[in-house]
Amino acid sequence: MAFNGYTIDHVTAAALDPFEANCVALRTCSRKVEPLFGQAGAKRGDAIRVRKPAQATVRTGQAWSGQDVNEQFDTLTLSYQIGVDFQMSSTERKLELNSLTEQVLKPYAIRLANEVDRIVLRDVARRTYNQTGTYGTTPTAMSTYLTARGRLADMCAPRGRGQMHMHINPAMEANVTTAITAGQNSLGPYVNPAGAVGDLYSNADMDGVFSHGVNWHMDQNLYVHTFGTRGTDTVLVNGTTAEGASTLVTDGWTGTNGLLEGDRFTIGSVFAVNPITKARLPWLQPFVATADGNSASGALTISVSPTMRATGQFQNVNALPANDATLTFAGASAAVATVGALWHKEAVTLAIVPLEKPDGVNQASTKYDPTSGIGLRYIEWYDGDTDQWKSRFDVVFGVLLQRPEHALAVYAE
User: How far does the chain reach from its first CA to its final CA, in angstroms?
Assistant: First the structure.
């Protein structure tokens, strides 16, 4: 049954446009593996394996020293299916398409897009281990953001226009705009292109601006993290940590204190290394808790990322944690902070795939935009008991932090 001079495909297409326009974080993710799911008929739970670049050790001298090509994989799963459900009377359904779009479709599509955006930023923030800034404090100087960019350069992330993406909230944007337009910060005066600074001064809008080596994106959906409860505990490594360990045995906890997924910390004398040359870097390797955990009898085994390797092709630390090495946490007990994010365009992999069109409903439509890689499904059916047309929008997607070494958390209030 047609609407007032238009079809269900027009309805889906009208919702797809504002949905695309409000997916800020999605535009900065890699979508290369998305076609492997196909463009129709995907469902929640579908998964594919994503290859990671091979790494190698370098021989010294003339003697041949073979090594296996050890490919690593991550799994991208379509973990999320979310949607907006609503109903219209037969009278409301007779609205002109423009009116229906402005009153119903656009607000619902924007709400759905913001939820997808929020989930992507949350999942990346919880799995990112690199960090900069002061937990719970919004940066006031450009030096924090330049340090963030420098850290990813240390981790050999490719540089250049369109490569790095910095996600900030409105308070961070205000300080960045002030620092750039004022022409100076704690590092001293800048030399900026007058036209670009003038536009920024007039608009006070960093969204889409390329400056200081990164592409800036204002996003009000940044993840807000609450640190685990710790009190004044002095937490230490307990025992020997094995090569390739993804857990860390600790003691020194009191009561049932512990960590939450997304809590970050460093370990005494465990430094990061250049991922290519394996040379020690001048900063301690940050780790992130990948699962919640509470202590028992003063002990807690923490699930961590990255996996700790002090030798071989995949070395990421200069040394494994020593017994009784001290853990230093990014945030105080139960402290709250907004987590901005800087990542390289290939660090975060995303797939949004159209769902199947089911049978047994009045009408169903799936629209997929191959340019943006976004698919949206709309279904409606008639309830004769209430004289209501019931409708739903659905989107299914998955997100994977495939190259966590090329992503970084930037703390704010």
Answer: 51
The pair of structure tokens assigned to 182 is 């004022």
One pLDDT digit (tens) per residue for the chain, 413 residues: 456 656 778 888 888 888 878 888 888 999 888 878 765 566 777 888 887 777 777 878 888 887 777 777 788 899 999 999 989 887 777 777 788 888 888 888 899 999 999 999 999 999 999 999 999 999 998 899 999 999 999 999 988 788 899 999 999 999 888 877 665 444 444 545 545 544 544 444 566 677 888 999 999 999 999 999 988 889 999 999 999 999 999 999 988 889 999 999 999 999 999 999 999 999 999 999 999 999 998 999 999 999 999 999 899 999 999 999 999 999 999 999 999 999 999 999 998 887 888 877 778 888 877 777 778 888 988 888 888 989 899 999 999 999 999 999 999 99
Amino acid identity at 355: L
3-state secondary structure 120-157: HHHHHHHHCCCEECCCCCCCCCHHHHHHHHHHHHHCCC
Q: What gap in Å lies between CA 24 and CA 221, rounded to an integer? A: 9
pTM of this prediction exceeds 0.90? no
